[in-house]
């Protein structure tokens, strides 16, 4: 596969070849027309001279040297013959024509004809008792035309080569940083830190380099977060697994009762399942082709179902879930929005003191759904990181909850925001604006 540099150079070469061919074609046409017009003017000028000689003397007074055709860097004599009143050639530059009928049977005062197998340009004028014909072979014009065309072609070719060399050097200079950047990207390893790039002074390329450098930083951060996440998950998974193993051995050694041991093993098994489900949920949300079928949803009914589902958990924490009951119907992917609401409620119940409030509504801009609590809120230094994957607060579990919520909101083409709540804690709101 050809490189970008090679493609640009080949494209530039094809453009230049095409330009040379078209330019030479136009120039050849123009130069030839100019030579034809100049030849015609020269023939007419010498025709007037020949007529003047005849009017002051006889046909024998005409000589080819009297009828000179002058061009730039070229000079030659025009051929002629003079036909008398009887239709016989009385004088001619070619002595073979004298005493014979004219070889050209002409009806126009100017034109082209064939003479002894050669194309000629001619002019004629009838005077009292004579017809004067001046002509010149077109091969003389073609010789001058070829010389002029060769000069034009040479000048255009040299100019094109100079432009090509300049373009080659410019393209080489422009693409050289890209080649270096490609090499740097090929050598890039997240373990080595940021991608090292050097600015070249070209705005677009510098922007590309800075973008790739920024991307390398994000990749490194993602890589570090993955390592932290794997360590956290390993720790979180190891804890219930050790509990299960420990109580299984305790039951075997009859250190604890079967009922107590099995109860703890069951609880820790459920904890493992929840963690694995979270991981599978996040993986599923990363799929860009995940189908979302919108349908009418009553937010009041959804809030009621979610609060009822989590009522036991809320009661255990001494938290009450409240909302203003009113009918608000929107078009949305119901399953995804319900899952998002459940996740936000679980998070709010964990941090609330006594109350979790659900609010929702619509306006001309779209709709919103918010969950807030009366806890301590999110510390200022964490507010820019709470939606990052693998970030876990003091009471967090896997660091995936809010990251999953954000991905669900994005799949709904909505935005998940954080702000301080009037209750004193945190307020997380899902806002969907209408697309105009």
TrEMBL record:
<keyword id="KW-1133">Transmembrane helix</keyword>
<dbReference type="InterPro" id="IPR005467">
    <property type="entry name" value="His_kinase_dom"/>
</dbReference>
<dbReference type="InterPro" id="IPR003594">
    <property type="entry name" value="HATPase_dom"/>
</dbReference>
<keyword id="KW-0597">Phosphoprotein</keyword>
<keyword id="KW-0472">Membrane</keyword>
<keyword id="KW-0902">Two-component regulatory system</keyword>
<keyword id="KW-0067">ATP-binding</keyword>
<dbReference type="GO" id="GO:0016301">
    <property type="term" value="F:kinase activity"/>
</dbReference>
<protein>
    <recommendedName>
        <fullName>histidine kinase</fullName>
        <ecNumber>2.7.13.3</ecNumber>
    </recommendedName>
</protein>
<dbReference type="InterPro" id="IPR003661">
    <property type="entry name" value="HisK_dim/P_dom"/>
</dbReference>
<feature type="domain" description="Histidine kinase">
    <location>
        <begin position="232"/>
        <end position="430"/>
    </location>
</feature>
<dbReference type="InterPro" id="IPR036097">
    <property type="entry name" value="HisK_dim/P_sf"/>
</dbReference>
<keyword id="KW-0547">Nucleotide-binding</keyword>
<feature type="transmembrane region" description="Helical">
    <location>
        <begin position="148"/>
        <end position="172"/>
    </location>
</feature>
<keyword id="KW-0418">Kinase</keyword>
<dbReference type="InterPro" id="IPR004358">
    <property type="entry name" value="Sig_transdc_His_kin-like_C"/>
</dbReference>
<keyword id="KW-0812">Transmembrane</keyword>
<dbReference type="InterPro" id="IPR036890">
    <property type="entry name" value="HATPase_C_sf"/>
</dbReference>
<dbReference type="Pfam" id="PF02518">
    <property type="entry name" value="HATPase_c"/>
</dbReference>
<feature type="transmembrane region" description="Helical">
    <location>
        <begin position="12"/>
        <end position="32"/>
    </location>
</feature>
<dbReference type="InterPro" id="IPR050428">
    <property type="entry name" value="TCS_sensor_his_kinase"/>
</dbReference>
<keyword id="KW-0808">Transferase</keyword>
<dbReference type="Pfam" id="PF00512">
    <property type="entry name" value="HisKA"/>
</dbReference>
